[in-house]
Design goal:
The protein is of the alpha/beta class. The protein is built from 14 helices and 9 strands. The chain has helices at 9-52, 61-67, 72-76, 121-124, 175-179, 203-214, 220-229, 236-249, 251-261, 319-325, 342-345, 356-369, 374-395, 400-418, and strands at 88-92, 95-99, 168-169, 187-188, 266-274, 288-298, 305-314, 331-334, 350-353.
């Protein structure tokens, strides 16, 4: 069937315009489909990598070779090897060679014992016995120089049994003493205060068990074996009861820390999964969460800053937990990309910021998922440069004020390029 075209010019123009609109709409639709197809292909790559690929984000040799195509300057910027610092240059067969000095500086806070290695006077005395002036002279060799080296000595932990002997005192054989009604007949020395009444555990022992368990990840059954080697029998059940009772004893102190941490200018927050056994109305296989807050407290008397790290256990990861832990807070909150912090971070009294470690993962995912990862690799290079600045400045032992100024000066140009 042949289409009949209108004879009027205006009608023909309208028809052409309609055809152009249809063609433009189809081209737009095709372009959108191509973009969606590209995004879906990238998602498929990411899913395949997460299921079948290696989980590490470390660069392979192939990745580094590919990266050099776009940001060779950042890659070729080398850092000083710690083992080569202070290396002694020696000459072997007419060419110089670096002899690594692997002696590491030990912190000045570590107690020191000075051991001097000297020769005796007899060993330093002039050996020229046949000298005509030997009996009158007998000079000693002078000290030319001193060479100092450091090493670490480990002293194993020591336990002591503290015997508390408490004396009681009777009445005085005296008429005036016995006639006084307000004077007790027997008095005793006050009992020592204990965090767990009736227990043999001192605060130092409770602190050691708690730090070993919760900071050093040393289970109670391993601590039980360590104490046994020292000749001390403390069962894992006893240590478990100690931790439960001690936590109740310091509950008011933890509440005070909770108030102090909200005075911090910067609050770091994160949550990690936890499996709890025998929890009421909750299967063993389900996830519970430990919410962590890190802040600083300033002593009003000395101005000294103290880091506060608080753990709060919750059965879930609800956004209400973030609101509870930040109630009344005004300042900066740094978190990962979890959306549970979105409403809390949107409050006008809170400045919500992220971290480069999680931002880097997004660039890395984009690099692995895209067919042309040039922009993603460039972004990764800038982030790597920021980390290099941070690492180098921390090694220079700057004051906090100097560190902030230097980091701003060097990092802002990198951030501008990244933006």
């Amino acid at each position: 069937m042949i289409a009949v075209l209108p004879e009027e010019i205006e009608e023909l123009k309208k028809l052409v315009l309609v055809k152009d609109d249809i063609i433009q709409a189809k081209e737009t639709y095709i372009s959108e489909l191509e973009k969606k197809t590209e995004i879906l292909n990238e998602k498929i790559k990411l899913l395949e990598r997460s299921r079948f690929g290696r989980s590490s984000e470390k660069w392979t040799k192939e990745d580094l070779a590919q990266q050099k195509l776009f940001n060779e300057a950042e890659i070729e910027a080398t850092e000083v090897d710690e083992d080569s610092k202070g290396a002694e240059i020696i000459t072997v067969s007419a060419h110089p060679r670096s002899k690594p000095n692997r002696q590491k500086k030990i912190s000045d806070e570590v107690p020191r014992v000075i051991v001097e290695h000297k020769l005796s006077e007899e060993e330093r005395r002039c050996p020229k016995i046949d000298c005509p002036h030997y009996d009158e002279c007998q000079k000693l060799r002078p000290v030319l120089s001193k060479e100092e080296t450091e090493e670490l000595k480990f002293i194993p932990a020591k336990v002591e049994a503290i015997n508390h002997v408490r004396y009681s005192y009777g009445s005085i054989k005296c008429k005036y003493f016995e006639d006084e009604e307000n004077i007790p007949a027997v008095i005793s020395a006050p009992r020592e205060k204990r965090l767990i009444p009736g227990s043999m555990a001192t605060p130092s022992l409770l602190s050691y068990v708690a730090v070993s368990k919760f900071s050093d990840a040393l289970p109670f059954y391993r601590q039980e074996r360590l104490f046994a080697r020292m000749g001390i029998q403390i069962s894992r059940q006893t240590m478990s009861n100690w931790m439960i009772k001690a936590s109740g004893g310091i509950e008011s102190f933890i509440g005070l820390l909770g108030e102090m941490i909200l005075e911090s200018q910067l609050l770091n927050m994160d949550e990690t999964t936890l499996q709890v056994l025998n929890e009421v109305d909750k299967p063993v296989s389900s996830k519970s969460y430990m919410w962590v807050r890190v802040g600083t407290s300033i002593d009003r008397n000395t101005g000294e800053k103290r880091i506060i790290i608080l753990f709060n256990y919750f059965r879930d990861r609800s956004k209400k937990r973030a609101e509870t832990l930040t109630k009344g807070y005004e300042g900066v909150i740094q978190t990962d990309g979890y959306t549970g912090y979105k409403e809390t971070g949107a409050k006008k009294e809170i400045w919500h910021v992220g971290c480069w470690a999680h931002a880097r993962r997004k660039f890395y995912d984009a690099y692995k998922g895209s067919t042309n990862g040039k922009l993603a690799v460039t972004g990764l290079g800038y982030i790597k440069k920021l980390y290099a600045i941070e690492t180098r400045l921390r090694k220079e032992e700057l004051t906090p004020e100097e560190f902030v100024l230097r980091r701003k000066k060097e990092a802002i140009p990198v951030l501008k390029n990244l933006g």
